[in-house]
Amino acid sequence: MATILIVDDQPDNLYVLERLLKGKGYQVLQAENGPAALQIATSQQPDLILLDVMMPEMDGFEVVQRLRDDGGTRLIPVVLLTANAPDERLKIQGLKLGADEYLTQPINNNELLARVQALLRTKQAQDELQARNVQLTALLDIVQTSTSTLDLAEVGQRLVRGAVSATQMEIGGLWLTHDNKLVCLAQEGYTPTVVQAWERITLSEHPIGVRVLQGRESIYGSTSVLFGADSPVAGEVHQAIVLPLVHRDTPLGVLHLGTRRQHTPSADELTFLRAIANAAAVAVQNARLFEETDRQRQDLERLDHEKDEFISIISHELKNPLASIKGYAGLLQRRSKKDQSLQAALKGLEVIEQQVNRMTTLLDHLRDVSQIGMDRFVIDAAPVDIAELTQRVAFEMQTTSTNHQIQIDVHDEPLIAEADEFRMSQVLSNLIGNAIKYSPGGGAIDIVVRKSSAPPSRPADIPPGEFAVITVRDYGMGIPPEGRDRLFQRFFRASNAQGRISGMGLGLYITREIVQRHGGYIWLDSNEGEGSLFGVAIPLLREAAPVDSQVERPAGTTSVAESTS
Ligand code: ADP
What we know:
With 565 residues, the chain is of the alpha/beta class. It has helices at residues 11-23, 34-44, 60-69, 88-97, 109-148, 152-167, 192-199, 207-214, 223-227, 232-236, 267-338, 343-373, 386-398, 421-437, 507-517, 560-564, and strands at 3-7, 27-31, 48-52, 78-81, 101-103, 171-178, 181-188, 219-222, 239-247, 250-259, 382-385, 404-410, 416-419, 443-452, 467-474, 521-527, 531-539, 558-559.
């Protein structure tokens, strides 16, 4: 029942009002002057105040004003009562100051009670709305905060704090099930006794396990019922509410709130708490899934790293015996050339050498890919003339095939770039090697080297500038359109190459990696059955290559074999 504070300096009046109100079941507080009324209003928060206007020291008008000025008492309804005859001016003054009613003599008891009831109803509705508002804000806050983080412990702490503050309970905790026991995810306000009592719970035997988790029931009541009358918890916390956390029909744990007050949750409060428990279940599940995924990702990364490490070691170790085989094959080749009786073995020794070279290249590719994977692939850059380097590599590559004629056309020279000479020669030999390999019928391979400030297909993330541009064109099998965009991925091979021409699909991946680490890019143009063009653009060193030192060559083609011989 509502509590009403009556304020009057006349004890007789207080007595009459008290009898009237108590007769209707209200609880009554009394004050004989304004300051006492203010003090009681602040400390006890009555639901309504009946206030005499005419009081010595501080009159009713001043009390109203002070009540309205104080955030803690601002919303308590006040009825001003006066023994004077009606005076419209005073009534308006009282209402303006914030009184809800102004009753004058003769005061009719029934009217007074009716007004009190009406004001209390309004106050109650207002209180409920406010409580709802607090709950909704808290719920929104909980949902927002718990979805904005995926750290399980932090999610738990935020949920508990939100639930405790929104319900005005003193303690709360989130407990997760683990092997027939409960493990605390987060708690607020627990004493060690409370923690221990919860940790001792064996779910299969305890009402929290049986009713809350298996039965999906929210339970509330005296702590002594939950933990036994002799439990030390019963002396600390009187009332407890325990709600299940269920996600897709799987019980994850419980939300617990406790208070030292005598408190029975209303239906609204339980609905609100269930909403929090549901939000908690989703948040906990999300955070768990994230942790699980994150753990798996870390495991995969570790495995991937171990694999790279393994490949790196293996490829290195296999190269030593290969080097020795190559050495002996070379020795035998030289002897065979001199010794007539060994001539028959010469062809076989050549094949051995070729195969050893192929295997060495494969192992180098494997090692490079593993180094890239482990982020140990280093570019050791210094000024390099790309035009001269291209000619050198083209010449070396010409020695590997008699079926192909490599033509090179250098328009500008020198083309100085800040580059790793070894890695750039790897790029060039990969591209020229592919041009040879994927035109199995032989034919021309045209290489063009030039300077350009507008090379084709420049991606948006490559800043403009001067580039050394090298294109390698072959007239071989070309590349089918499907899968062209995946050509630079690890282990990818075009459909027309698979099964016909051996390879691992690593060369272009490494090539692009090297080119990009030089601040450049690679592009491709191809027609299946007609051939392919691979282009590489590498930014030039700005201060290098003064204009007058450049040699502008007439457009024309030089055979690599001729120019270098
Ligand atoms: P590999 O040659 O060992 O397969 P690469 O990474 O060098 O690996 O090339 C990837 C794929 O790109 C090749 O398998 C082939 O399908 C295709 N490719 C590369 N260069 C050419 C080319 N010049 N002509 C036709 N296809 C090519």
